[in-house]
Amino acid sequence: MRVSLKDVAERAGVSIKTVSNVVNNYPHVTPAMRAKVQEAIDALGYRPNLTARHLRKGRTGIIALAVPELGNPYFAELAGAVIDAAAQHEFTVLLDHTRGDREQELLVSQGFRARVIDGLILSPLELEAEDLHGRADDVPLVLLGEREYDLPFDHIAIDNVAASREAVRHLLGRGRTRIAYLGARTDSANRPAHLRLDGWRAELTAAGLPTTDDMVVPVDGWDRDDGARAMARLLDSGIRPDAVFAYNDLIAIGAMRVLHERGLRVPWDVAVVGFDDIAESRFGAVSLTTIAPDKQAIARLAMGSLLRSLSGRQDPGGRELTAEYRLVERESTLGRR
Fold first, then answer.
1. In what helix (H) or strand (E) does residue 321 lie, and over which residues does it extend?
2. Distance between CA 21 and CA 224 in Å, rounded?
3. Among 171, 199, 169, 174, which Cα is nearest to 184's?
4. Which residues are CB-contacts of 140 (< 8 A; sequence separation ≥ 6)?
5. Helix, strand or coil for residue 157?
6. By the 8 A CB rule, do 250 and 277 touch?
């Protein structure tokens, strides 16, 4: 039989209202009373009815997180961080996998789950600003990722240009001067890689080095095989870089495999830096130097933004919220200076 507030109140010798105040963490309960009620809660194994609690507030207790690719370790790790952040506020997370498809992103953003969720955290690849202007759904929306939008929704990202400049600056500091960029996109719809490319160009230009197009290798996707193909195309073109900065860790890992197959040693012949700090980057035969976004901070900011909206305090113009990042130095750049 489920333990009720009344059962806890009877054991503790207090009113149901006092038990409710303790369960809801109201501050005006005395420490002695809180301890007395908590002892009864622990003894009886009472668990709050979160569904009823949310319904009393006119909520479902569920938020949605929509990401392009759950098979990508970065998004899987980010999803875990969002689930943890949501649990701190007694929310459950419903995961949506959009595959980076515009129609699917439109479907998610326009509220096809509006009746079952209290808010949506969306990391889009294909959506344009006009897709979200005049959005009919009134469920609070928070945007994640590198895409830039001028919209009345909070947007959370790291400073991709600054982070990319730091990655290139690190390579320059290791004595590398022929630094290739793997991960550009040539199609007009998929443009979230341009900020990292901008950072690569800006730092090389500041160092007085050229940023020629033959050192920029486009990709069709962001997985290991895309990085492998990009690295092979660059080497087959006759260009021999002494360093590679990759759009993400998966591309970098694919590139390192091809370098190994071609007899080029990482980091002595070619240093490599990735982006995302996925778990895999720490455990390869050569561990990967990478930019590590603070995924936990991104998750906390996203959850805080949704709670702000749910409490009626959303900024009508939307806010740009920036999470921190750091460069993690590992074996793939520890060669010569």
1. strand 320-322
2. 52
3. 199
4. 118, 119, 120, 305, 306, 309, 310, 314
5. strand
6. no
- CB atoms inside a 10 Å sphere around CB 106: 16
Give the CA radius of gyration of the chain.
Answer: 24
pLDDT per residue as tens, the chain (337 positions): 677 777 878 888 888 788 777 777 676 778 888 888 888 878 877 776 555 454 445 568 899 999 999 889 999 999 999 999 999 998 999 999 998 888 898 888 887 666 789 999 999 988 888 888 777 667 899 999 987 778 889 999 999 999 999 999 999 999 999 999 999 976 644 455 689 999 999 999 999 999 999 999 999 888 999 999 999 999 999 999 999 999 999 999 999 999 999 999 999 999 999 999 999 999 999 999 999 999 999 999 999 999 998 887 666 668 899 999 999 999 999 865 5
**100/130 Cα distance (integer angstroms):** 17
Burial of 159 (0-12, 13-18, 19+ CB in 10 A): middle
Tokens of 126: 């294909």
What letter represents residue 117's amino acid? I
What are the Cα distances from residue 148, in Å, to 143, 195, 297, 303? Answer: 10, 9, 19, 20
Structure tokens at 185: 């996109």
Per-residue tokens: 236: 């087959």
Q: Tell me the H-state helices in the chain.
A: 5-12, 16-23, 31-44, 50-56, 73-87, 102-109, 129-132, 160-173, 194-206, 224-236, 249-261, 295-310
Task: Give the count of alpha carbons within 13 A of 191, CB side only.
Answer: 9
Predicted model pTM: 0.81
In angstroms, rounded to a whole number, what is the distance separating the alpha carbons of residues 325 and 122?
20
DSSP secondary structure code for residue 15 in this structure? -
